[in-house]
Fold this protein.
Amino acid sequence: MTVIRTIAIVAAAATLAMPSVAAAPDTIKARQANFKAMARSMKMISDELRKDAPAFAVVRREAAALDRAAARVGRYFPRGTGAEAGVKTGARAAIWAQPAAFQGAATKLTGATKGLRAAAAGTDPARIRAALGATGATCKGCHDQFRVPD
Ligand code: HEC
């Protein structure tokens, strides 16, 4: 093995050994901002649907933003980003104790936001409303199980 290769391997090992908790507060902040943005998109869509003449362009834009944000949720919870990170978080330990159930809840969300995005491609308020309700149910489903109640 060459010296350079050995140095590269040692450096890589050192990087892997670095505690991920160093970045945990940043990860937690980023995921909370992502959730806030999702809540904002849900509200904007809901507000439009309440109008006599909803701006479907806004509905479409927010449904797309929501779908993109939803796709990130499952990746925002690496180990070390729970209460042990030392910053305020609503993430329950169950997320890491039951990772398959948590990822399942995240997959339900993305399934629903894809449905909402598809509904928002059209201009049928009832269909969009139903898809929005289905999306909201997946938010609640995960919160009931994996988020610390306020
Ligand atoms: C797979 C699980 C899961 C799904 C699905 C989910 N959430 Fe959450 N949500 C959480 C967890 C866990 C937290 C706590 C995060 C933290 O504080 O670190 C949270 C926190 C939040 C927060 C508070 C963020 C903050 O500023 O502290 C809002 C708002 C929120 N979620 C909205 C939503 C909305 C809206 C949806 C659906 C469109 C949704 N969530 C779907 C798990 C989920």
User: Anything to note?
Assistant: The radius of gyration is 20 Å. The pocket of heme C is lined by residues 28, 31-32, 35-36, 38-39, 42, 73, 89-91, 102, 105-106, 109, 135, 138-139, 142-143, 146-147 (CB under 6 Å). The mean pLDDT is 91. The CA atoms of residues 97 and 138 lie 20 Å apart.
